[in-house]
Input
Amino acid sequence: MSVYNYFKFWRNQVVDTNGYYVPKKTYAHDVFAILYDGNIETNRFRLKGCWPVNLPVQDLSFNEDIIRYTVMLNVDEIETGSTLATVFNIARTGKQILSGFTK
Output
């Protein structure tokens, strides 16, 4: 599935075929935004209760070999936390790092 089709499918879950809004718990999801400095992860944000407000818009710039899409997301809450600070705190307290995603 292409990026455009993914966001289009997600956006179409917000309103049913009769024009009625579907319960938010059906289409709102948590999304992670990760910032990098080169290949090193420097910060991670958890965007809680995200859903696309509009359909993706393609940027038709010919300056790059990259197709860019702009999608506006509604976000209920932003949870921030520095990855580097988390690693230092875990190293200091001796806790283990477990990776993975949960629903």
